[in-house]
Design brief:
This protein is of the alpha/beta class and about 240 residues long. It has nine helices and seven strands. Helix content is about 40%, strand content about 15%. Helix 4 packs parallel to helix 5 and helix 4 packs across helix 7.
Length: about 240
């Protein structure tokens, strides 16, 4: 990756920002500028039509838990899945159940009408899709899958929703950040209404938006998004 490109881009952005902070209001609150560019590049890279960049993956998962109304619902996780991700859904009132990745077909049918399944591997998605009796309204992939970085360029997720983290040691190290990728426009817009500033919701929908009762304000900082743009573009040209 050409880090000098990212450094130069950030330096230019900060110089312009400090000279006129109000001119950059939309990039922070409405997700314009580098945020919109980062989301578009990431969506294309991952093979999804919609993407929302967040300040971190934990906020992304909190937004998903609110979006999917998991309180009182069953959420299935792999037996070895990182507890940090699981704890978000537990905090939001979901009934946590674990599955053995090698024994998906043996899951008890009566308990598989769940709010969602969280998976880290592609073969698990295929198994959930094809196993008779398992009804998974939403399959979420919480993993490190980023085409051209951690997997081959055409190795896209087949999950309904994919969550990525961009902290240290992750597919992209932006200083902060996460992202949620959606196939459903409806879920994408609802997620924005729960996690982003009302100005972004208004910009997306074309109508005035009210602050929801549980507004997370989980938006990524434009500087982190700018680094992401530079890294993704560097990967594409490598």
């Amino acid at each position: 990756m050409n880090r000098s490109v990212a450094i130069a881009s950030v330096a230019t952005y900060l110089e312009d920002f400090l000279s006129d902070t109000e001119a950059f209001r939309g990039q922070q609150l409405r997700g314009g500028g580098p945020v919109a560019e980062f989301e578009a590049l990431l969506a294309k890279r991952c093979g999804y039509p919609y993407c929302v960049a967040t300040c971190n993956a934990t906020s992304a998962l909190l937004g998903l838990a609110a979006l999917l109304r998991v309180r009182g619902q069953t959420a299935w996780f792999p037996a070895s899945h990182w507890e940090g991700s699981v704890s978000v859904f537990r905090l939001m009132g979901a009934k946590i159940r674990r599955y053995d990745a090698n024994k998906i077909a043996a899951l008890p049918r009566a308990s598989c009408d769940a709010a969602l399944f969280v998976v880290p591997e592609e073969y698990e998605i295929a198994t959930f899709r094809t196993t008779k009796g398992i009804r998974a309204p939403i399959i979420v992939e919480d993993s490190l899958r980023l085409p051209s970085v951690t997997v081959d360029e055409n190795d896209h997720s087949n999950a309904d929703i994919q969550v990525l983290s961009f902290g240290p040691g992750k597919p992209l190290s932006l200083g902060e950040g996460g992202a949620v990728l959606f196939r459903s426009r409806k879920l994408y817009e609802k997620f924005i209404s729960l996690t982003m500033h009302p100005e972004r919701m208004a910009a997306e929908s074309g109508r005035c938006a009210k602050v929801p009762l549980a507004c997370l304000n989980a938006r990524i900082h434009p500087v982190a998004a700018l680094i992401g743009v530079a890294l993704l573009m560097a990967e594409a040209s490598a």
